[in-house]
Write a structure and sequence with these properties.
Blueprint (H helix, E strand, L loop, with lengths): L6 H18 L3 H7 L4 H9 L18 H12 L3 H21 L2 H12 L5 E4 L15 E5 L2 E12 L6 E7 L9 E7 L5 E6 L10 E12 L3 E2 L5 H37 L1 E2 L2 E2 L4 H29 L5 H26 L10 H10 L7 H13 L1
Parallel strand pairs: 1-4
Antiparallel strand pairs: 2-3, 3-7, 4-5, 5-8, 6-7, 9-10
Helix pairs in contact: 1-4, 4-5, 4-7, 4-8, 5-6, 5-7, 7-8, 7-9, 7-10, 8-9, 9-10, 9-11
Bound molecules: acetoacetyl-coenzyme A.
The site of acetoacetyl-coenzyme A has 26 residues, from helix 5, strand 3, helix 7 and helix 11.
Length: about 375
């Protein structure tokens, strides 16, 4: 048993922390207010190798692991949760299934430019009528010679409109239920593909979330990911790891809120002494720090399991469940510690609180995480 991070992990943490403080934090509030994605930030992440952390160098990555990737998402989210989820969806929702299920040709053609940050990845599973019940999707893919013709729409797509490459799930044989779903790689310049409504959101406002639409969208059969009928399994396996990326995002959000609340509580004097020295506030900070540490340990454990090639689906659902709830609780307490000031946009904690909420919803609601965990421990 060893809880010490390796030199490589410490180095990546320091590099991402410096980058986040210097390049991401200064515009985080402004981008949130303007609902503005900044491609320059993504390009700079690419220069640092952050857009391909776990992928081997032969696919344009830096050959590190899932723990390093989680540390990067955590440090980015500590200052800007939108930037954290941009990287998370790009890496674990779009890059991962191509890395795991893609042919050599698909990896060179799609994963490599994504890892190098030349292209951005997205993931299309959710539909207006199928959120938690992902197997209820209606988007179809009908074979026509060397192509599949996709029709339907996907909603709540993180990186929607900015992504160049989407991993999309569609029904190829409705009679086969889960086994009649297939996965496809769809490039954004494919005729018949379009970007629909952009959501106006409570939080993660500088991460674009859109609808994507397929109208007789002809995708080469060579872009099918994995075998025909394997799509639902690919979607679920992708989420197994993706959820831990969201756990890392939640840990970062919570830590960012704790950092701000701690600094404030040490400065803010009421009743003749800093509020941090008043037990009511001091104990809040202690509980916040303890929950974050527990969430971080769960997250790192799941990342370590995945990096070691061990089963991690249950642990990843647990980390997402616990870290998401921690982020919501900690950010709410941070606003409370700031009092009236915390309710204004003069301080970052209201943004952290708004950003935290989504970590209890996307990549499977907290209720779905409980379903996954309970099924795994009772099967
Ligand atoms: N790994 C491999 N296979 C899996 C699996 C997994 N984790 N989970 C399920 N499967 C397989 C099952 O073994 C089963 O296969 P067989 O038919 O061969 O037995 C098949 O898939 C169907 O499984 P279930 O019967 O368990 O399926 P279900 O319909 O009951 O659904 C569910 C299970 C867990 C509820 C699933 O629908 C689910 O995860 N829902 C939540 C969807 C979700 O998380 N959406 C997030 C969207 S992405 C997003 O949010 C991104 C973002 O914005 C950043």
């Amino acid at each position: 048993m060893n809880f010490k991070l390796s030199e490589e992990h410490e180095m990546i943490r320091k590099m991402v922390r410096d980058f986040a403080r210097n390049e991401v934090a200064p515009t985080a509030a402004e981008r949130d207010e303007e609902e503005r994605f900044d491609r320059e930030i993504f390009n700079k992440m690419a220069e640092l190798g952050l857009t391909g952390i776990p992928w081997p160098e032969e696919y344009g990555g830096i050959g590190s692991d899932y723990l390093a990737y989680c540390i990067a998402v955590e440090e980015l989210s500590r200052v800007c949760a939108s930037t954290g989820v941009t990287l998370s969806a790009h890496t674990s929702l779009a890059g991962w299934p191509i890395y795991k299920f893609g042919s050599e040709e698909q990896k060179q053609k799609f994963l490599r430019p994504m890892a190098l940050g030349e292209k951005i990845g997205g993931y299309g599973l959710t539909e207006p009528g199928s959120g938690s019940d992902a197997g209820g999707m209606k988007t179809t893919a009908r074979r026509d010679g060397d192509e599949f013709i996709l029709n339907g729409s996907k909603i709540f797509i993180t990186n929607g409109g900015i992504a160049d490459i989407y991993v999309v799930f569609a029904v190829t044989d409705a009679a086969q239920k889960h086994k009649g779903t297939s996965a496809f790689i769809v490039e954004s310049d494919t005729p018949g593909f379009s970007v629909g409504k952009k959501e106006k959101k409570l939080g993660i406002r500088s991460s674009p979330t859109t609808e994507i639409i397929f109208e007789d969208c002809r995708v080469p059969a060579a872009n099918m990911l994995g075998a025909e009928g394997e799509g639902f399994k690919i979607a679920m396996m992708t989420l197994d790891g993706g959820r831990n990326g969201i756990a890392a995002q939640a840990v970062g959000i919570a830590q960012g809120a704790l950092d701000a609340a701690t600094d404030y509580a040490k400065e803010r004097v009421q009743f003749g002494k800093p509020i941090a020295q008043q037990q009511g506030v001091g104990f809040k900070l202690a509980d916040m720090a303890t929950s974050i540490e527990a969430a971080r340990l769960l997250t790192y454990q799941a990342a370590w399991l995945e990096s070691e090639g061990l089963p991690y689906g249950k642990e990843s659902a647990m980390s997402k469940l616990f870290a998401g709830d921690t982020a919501m609780k900690v950010t709410t307490e941070a606003v409370q510690i700031f009092g009236g000031y915390g309710y204004t946009k003069d301080y970052p904690v209201e943004r952290y609180m708004r950003d935290a909420k989504i970590t209890q919803i996307y990549e499977g609601t907290q209720e779905i995480q409980r379903l996954v965990i309970s099924r795994m421990i009772t099967k």
